[in-house]
């Protein structure tokens, strides 16, 4: 085992230490540095990530990341009402567009998830209020040792609870592994490996973050 495998870190060309999973791809590094693990309370961004994590199922995130701008174009910037209003003709158009993942089931699920999100917003006040209700307590978060093999995509009690809740609400492609990846990326947990330059930044962001709730 080399030092990077043991620590879970990799040194970039810029001299900064990052989580080993990010590798050397500049696009992936930028995502890691500026987005992954930063807490988000914006409904549109949360909805987009839920949908894109669903498209990722069975694939790598870098594959989705490279297609993200095309996804945003074709799914109306992931504005929830516009996605929910998409119909059969839109599905056929997207299935034929090679710029995204042309998986009919996932495309239909994203549209259906838009309708489910609207129902939640009407009931809860915001999608963020519902989702952040599943923020895991400290004792359920991965240990430092776990963070070193995070590429194995752990399932946690909190991600299982969120997955079950979303499925009850009518969401699809939201299994426990997908939900934990969502939690990681949207800052519900800070899974940057100790020693990663972004870990402390995410901790500071979380300290300033106002956790959404249904009364907001």
From TrEMBL:
<dbReference type="InterPro" id="IPR052891">
    <property type="entry name" value="DNA-3mA_glycosylase"/>
</dbReference>
<feature type="binding site">
    <location>
        <position position="32"/>
    </location>
    <ligand>
        <name>Zn(2+)</name>
    </ligand>
</feature>
<keyword id="KW-0479">Metal-binding</keyword>
<dbReference type="Pfam" id="PF03352">
    <property type="entry name" value="Adenine_glyco"/>
</dbReference>
<protein>
    <submittedName>
        <fullName>DNA-3-methyladenine glycosylase I</fullName>
    </submittedName>
</protein>
<keyword id="KW-0862">Zinc</keyword>
<feature type="binding site">
    <location>
        <position position="196"/>
    </location>
    <ligand>
        <name>Zn(2+)</name>
    </ligand>
</feature>
<feature type="binding site">
    <location>
        <position position="19"/>
    </location>
    <ligand>
        <name>Zn(2+)</name>
    </ligand>
</feature>
<dbReference type="InterPro" id="IPR011257">
    <property type="entry name" value="DNA_glycosylase"/>
</dbReference>
<dbReference type="GO" id="GO:0046872">
    <property type="term" value="F:metal ion binding"/>
</dbReference>
<dbReference type="GO" id="GO:0008725">
    <property type="term" value="F:DNA-3-methyladenine glycosylase activity"/>
</dbReference>
<dbReference type="InterPro" id="IPR005019">
    <property type="entry name" value="Adenine_glyco"/>
</dbReference>
<dbReference type="GO" id="GO:0006284">
    <property type="term" value="P:base-excision repair"/>
</dbReference>
<feature type="binding site">
    <location>
        <position position="192"/>
    </location>
    <ligand>
        <name>Zn(2+)</name>
    </ligand>
</feature>
